[in-house]
Amino acid sequence: MRIAIQSRGRGVLLALLAGLLPLTGYAAASADWAFPGCPLPPETPAADAEKPFSVPGSARTASRAELAHADVTVDWFPEEHAPLPPIVATRPGKAGCGYCHLPDGTGRPENAKLAGLPAAYIVAQVRALRDGVRTPVRPDWVPSKYMVQFAGGLDDGELEAAARYFAATPARSHVRVVETRTVPHLEVRCYTYGPGAGAALPLGTRILEVPVDVERFEQRDPHTEYLAYVPVGSIDRGRRLASGATPGHPACAACHGAALAGDEALPGPPLAGRFPGYLFRQLYGFRSGARGGEAAAPMRAVTAGLTDSDLVDLAAFAASLAP
Ligand code: HEC
Ligand code: HEC
Question: How far is the C-alpha of 266 from the C-alpha of 255, rounded, in Å?
């Protein structure tokens, strides 16, 4: 899904179709795999852009042209969540929260699941991103860049309404975590991966997230299912490391709750059933210091000395748990 945002008058236009790039030439050490780019999409023929379509189970229709306008979120399943606060539904000249995080807060691999996060945590993170206390691991990676930009210019009422809404929305996961040594041929899609034609590829020490149906992903269908390919043995290694049994490594549950499902009385947000690529990027960001400030200090200590492979294991384990 493309988040290449071009201003056109007051509107914000997002090109929708993803192009293709072969998934080769990745330097394993640099974790480039966690930041897939967005090849230029092929042009949509004008006639197709206006053609209405729907997604399975939805009673409404939309066109590609409508979906491309990020300032108004297409809400495929309004009956599945409470009424959207205005800032989640629409934001003139920018994008409402629901455009990227989806109206039910399910999120997408390139951003974050917000449903079920504590409201105070959501408010604190948006402010930390706005103020540069939390910087993305790669500030130039387009999804992160726009979140930082869009964290600005919100008034307290808008931010609090969005936070209350997402906190009250139950978290769901449509991601199946699959351990494997090789993956079917994959290509870089827009900030994620998609099936491609060619030979199977070695997974190595990576997490590769792939929508099962790329078209539904591009249509921003919140029911889109994903496979997250993770290394063989990573879930068990992550479980052991998270358990606190390894000297010098505290139990994640102490701050993130039993089964990592969070607990309002504890300082850490829920981790269970969230996108593993997102979790990996955050662990990476704590370790590098990109996520700064006092609130992130415990996580900088937790991640100090962990290898990229440890971070992959922890992310795979947490993502494999039910939200
Ligand atoms: C253009 C897409 C986009 C829009 C619009 C957007 N976000 Fe985000 N958001 C992201 C991305 C990408 C991240 C991950 C940032 C990172 O760490 O790199 C993110 C992260 C977050 C996080 C951190 C989640 C966590 O678990 O720590 C919160 C909270 C958040 N967004 C809230 C909001 C709210 C509230 C709005 C509406 C006012 C909003 N976002 C609008 C893309 C977007
Ligand atoms: C001493 C308490 C503590 C322990 C132990 C701890 N965490 Fe955290 N964790 C936190 C806090 C607090 C935050 C929120 C940080 C912030 O506000 O920036 C957090 C945030 C995170 C995030 C980012 C979530 C998001 O929504 O962006 C991840 C991922 C994470 N922790 C993973 C882990 C894992 C895995 C372990 C065990 C290896 C662990 N944590 C152990 C306190 C802890």
Answer: 5
Instruction: Locate 287 and state its tokens.
Output: 């370790």
Q: Residue 150 C-alpha to ligand 1 middle, in angstroms?
A: 8
CA distance 44 to 183: 30
Gap from CA of 286 to ligand 2 centroid (Å):
9
Structure tokens of 318? 């947490």
pLDDT tens digits, 242-275: 999 999 999 999 999 999 999 999 999 999 999 9
Return the amino acid letter for 319.
A
Dihedral sign, CA of 84, 85, 91, 97?
Answer: negative
Report the 10 Å Cβ neighbour count for 53. 13
Tens digit of each residue's pLDDT (9 = 90 or more) over 205-227: 999 999 999 999 999 999 999 99
The string of pLDDT tens digits covering residues 7-65 is 333 334 443 323 333 343 333 448 999 999 998 777 777 788 899 999 999 999 999 99
Distance 166 CA to ligand 1 centre (A): 12
Nearest CA to ligand 2 atom 41: 252
A 10 A CB-CB count for 121 gives 19
Query: Are 172 and 104 a contacting pair, CB within 8 Å?
Result: yes
Residue 283 and residue 114 in contact, taking contact as beta carbons nearer than 8 Å: no
Task: Measure Cα distances from 263 to 99, 152, 164 in Å.
Answer: 28, 28, 16
Contact yes or no for 242/229 (Cβ under 8 A): no
Sequence-ordered list of residues with C-beta below 8 angstroms from that of 157, at least 6 positions apart, any chain = none
Does this model's pTM top 0.90? My answer is yes
Do 98 and 88 meet the contact criterion of CB atoms below 8 Å apart?
yes
Ligand nearest to the CA of 267: 2
